[in-house]
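name: query_chain
kind: protein
chains: 1
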Amino acid sequence: MIDFNVIGEKLNSSIISDVLDGMGIKNNAMSMGIRPLDPDMSIVGRAFTLLMADQYDLDKDTFTLQFEAIDGLNKDDVMMVCSNGSTRAALWGELLSTAAHYRGASGAVIDGLARDVKLIQDMKFPVFCKGIRPISSKGRVIAVDYGCPVNIGGVMVNPGDLIVADCDGVVVVPHKITEKVIDEALDVVTRETKTREELRNGALLSEVYKKYGTV
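structure:
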């Protein structure tokens, strides 16, 4: 059973990335352009995916499927929004954050733009995105599907994958290996703690690395 609180308290995206590297999974950290709206924001939870695309009828109602997806969020879900990098409009704002937050979601990761930044920061709902723009997505971007595989920040994301996001970036752990990754990551934390203690006591980095194998 995955304990998201333990992951949030003891682990971070860098440790998870290192463990995935060691398992031969080399490309599960998203591109550096996807950043938190506040550096103190962090996310741990399971992926709930939403696929969106540009569209050009400004009078068209483009919200129906998007709202259906948000209304389907559950506790500890992370809304993962793929728009193939569209920057036409903000895909996420304060009211969507409010809806997701009160559904129990842990946060949102968007390969596009957001708005209402100050309001989102004030409510402390973690949002990671590529940038900021005040333009509404109405009539400009439309939901195509949800609960489907998506590619965000160069990483494939499937529903139920573990998402760990913080000021260092966003990492995706395939759901089938989540427990193994977390167990190994907790072991890394133990070895890093011992490494840190010995370095503070004057030990040589090269010798400590040979002993614990982490840096």
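note: The chain has two domains: 4-174, 181-212.
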